[in-house]
Amino acid sequence: MSPWFTWLTPAILLLLPWLVRDGVGMAQTTVCSRWDHSVGLDDLGLSQEGDVVIGAVFPIHNLPPAPDLSFSQPPDLQSCVNFLEEPLRWVHALVFAVDEINRNPFLLPGVRLGYRVLDSCGQHPWSLRGALALVSGGNLTWPSSDSHVPLVIGDASSTQAIILARTLGPLSVPVISYQASCACLSDRKEFPNFFRTIPSDVYQALSMARLTWLLGWTWVGAIAADNDYGRQAVFEAAVRGTGVCLAFFETLNRANLVRDVERAADTVQASTARVILVFLWYTDMEALLLELGRRNVTDRQFLASEAWSTSGQLLRNPALFNVSRGVVGVAIRSAPMPGFEAHLRSLHPSRRPGDILLKELWETEFGCSPGAAHANDTSLSPRPRLASCSGAETLEVVQSPFTDTSQLRVTYNVYLAVYAAAHALHSLLSCPQRDSPTWGSSFTCSPPHNISPAELLQHLNQVNFTTPLGEPFYFRGADVPAVYDLVNWQATLQGLLKLVTIGRVEGSNILINQSAIQWNTGSNMVPVSVCSDSCPPGTRVARKKGEPVCCFDCIPCAEGEVSNTTGSLQCDRCPLEFWSNGNRTACVPRQLEFLSFNDTMGVTLTTVAVCGAVATAAVFMLFVYHRHTPLVRANNSELSFLLLLSLKLCFLCSLVFIGRPSVWACRIRQAAFGVIFVLCLSCLLVKTIVVLAAFRSARPGAGQLMRWFGPVQQRGSVFLFTSVQVIICAVWLSISPPLPYRDLGLKGSKVILECEMGSVAGFSLVLGYIGLLASLCLLLAFLARKLPDNFNEAKFITFSMLIFCVVWMSFVPAYVSSPGKYADAVEIFAILASSFGLLFCLFAPKCYIILLRPERNTKKHMMSI
């Protein structure tokens, strides 16, 4: 509302008598002088005397914007033109309701209800002036100056209703609006005297927001009237419509309608939003649709507010067919009014000679003048004089907005407003006896001839009755329970548009038949209007900084996270035993990973190990066959056979590391590895000691040395060295043995099944003891490398120990840094590499002599220097 009205209201109230009786009449004379006739506020002929008279204000005419209209020209100097048939039907809903009430013996018995109707012309000054005239009783034609009304029904516009409520509030005059839906009017502290029979825009905005979300529209534009109705409605839709973003927000001011319509059309044409929410009066919407049609912008889906969603003027305009086809809107609920159509079609100027508006209706429908409908033979618009009607004209067969009763929406609201006023008056005039127990101080009563508006206001707050249709009616503060129809503009075979009801809104529940909707494309497929397409399963929404929440990027879920719904805001972590599939849409059980006999690495290592074992067995068989030759018998052949047996076991023990780890496999593999290798190294160490002892015993005074290194001592030494490792392994396995372990954190989609060491100290002792024996063997073999012999075995032991030490020194860092099955592969490789090193370095030269140079396999050749 304009700021000037806030401070002007007290002045208006102080000057009320003068303004109504003198100023209003003077203003009327001024206005009407521009029409060349003089018409008072009451000269519409729409009034009826009664014991109690209710007042009403309707926008029966419209003041269209003119190029010369500006704030410098007083609004009350503008002519009221453009007769509107639908508001006239609203007027006769009041007349029809009053007639019903007067015929009802149970409602206001003995009291005749009257009415007084004025035209607001859809303008604030006219509406305010009319309301002040009604409540003060000021007029030119009524005989009694006490004919003021205790209640006003009107006006249609939210801004005008605010003006009336604020102006009449200090006088406690109730105002019941049939179409003012601004949410601000629900404030009982600011508007304690205001009521309405239309739901608040809070509910309409919530319904439209829920509808856009239900239909999948998250990126919408909005165009609203630049007044309380439009601004409040769009604000509610934007804030309360969770998930719905406004691509743009344009306002239209009726004072600058042409310029604002062009700007709004430019915005609609340039925007990517395909759905437009529109909160406009139907006359303003018509101008916008015409402009969009002129630009051939026909691919937009409009979501209409109740102010224009059922407008017959727009539906019947063929120029709007292409641009407005498929409109979906929230509409005021429709209800039947039995007998109302017959009432409308029975109207005739001859039966209502003073009704100027009925005369204008006749001129509009039949193109003729029914005669002097007024004493001065005047009309409210500067239309040319027409030929007189024959008198045979009738509304019985006329199809027009006035006679159309198929969708009674605002009309029914007016009907309910009259009944609410009547029941409040009935309650006021039917007060209990003062000595009754129900009599109290909360209610006061008045006689019919002197009704106090303040007392009527008290009873209106408590109104609760059943309508003629059997529905309960009551006020929640200023409001009524929210009920809406959902409508759709559908094309007919005749190339016209018709209004089809497709659903209903009751409170927060939306019932809609989507299959019955005809969209702007002519199909049943719901249009798409989004800033960003919904993120598919397997991705999540990533907000764009500085952009609306509806504009986002889709980021794939990380490994181990999934999203199985469209438009997920975050990805969910899979449980430990599960991992995300390739599309990141579901958690699947993790694959067990271990070194198996089926994968390539396992097959390769198994083949190499078997080959090593076969080669060792072949050497063993060769040595058995040539066991009596000097080369085999030299340096204790028994140790050589034991060494070959231990090497074969070294090759075979590597196979224990391949396959699914189990409790016994984990315990055996490390113990077998440690004991077998110690057996192998013990044989080598004893052989090296024997070589050194043999050559030392050849020196003078050392003949008894070999007595301490005979076969028994050699076997005992091997057994002793091996027993130490057996004891270490036994203690390790008894205290903290290796066990199968599922490692869930290394390979993502795979669970690493491996053998956990249990005791790092135990494994370190096993490796340390092997290293100790290998170091002693290397040291002794190195010392014996230059002893005189044609076949000095110490040299080959030295080379084999060098290979062994290098391999196992490299093993430690490689083993620690290798994950999962690769750690087992590294250990197997170290076992096989060191085993092959020992096999080839120790036995390849002997096999060469046995097989290829048998002449060297003699004692003489071996003893020669």
UniProtKB/TrEMBL annotation:
One of its GO terms (cellular component) is plasma membrane. Belongs to the G-protein coupled receptor 3 family. This is Olfactory receptor C family, r1. CDD domains: 7tmC_V2R_pheromone (cd15283). SUPFAM superfamilies: Periplasmic binding protein-like I. GO terms for molecular function: G protein-coupled receptor activity. Keywords: Cell membrane, G-protein coupled receptor, Glycoprotein, Membrane, Receptor, Signal, Transducer, Transmembrane, Transmembrane helix. The chain crosses the membrane at residues 601-625, 637-659, 671-695, 716-735, 760-784, 796-816, 828-852. InterPro entries: ANF_lig-bd_rcpt, GPCR_3, GPCR_3_9-Cys_dom, GPCR_3_9-Cys_sf, GPCR_3_C, GPCR_3_Ca_sens_rcpt-rel, GPCR_3_CS, GPCR_3_vmron_rcpt_2. It is found in: Cell membrane. Its main location: membrane. Residues 1-22 form the signal peptide. PROSITE patterns: G_PROTEIN_RECEP_F3_3 (PS00981), G_PROTEIN_RECEP_F3_4 (PS50259). It is a multi-pass membrane protein. Residues 601-865 form the G-protein coupled receptors family 3 profile domain. The keyword Disulfide bond does not apply.
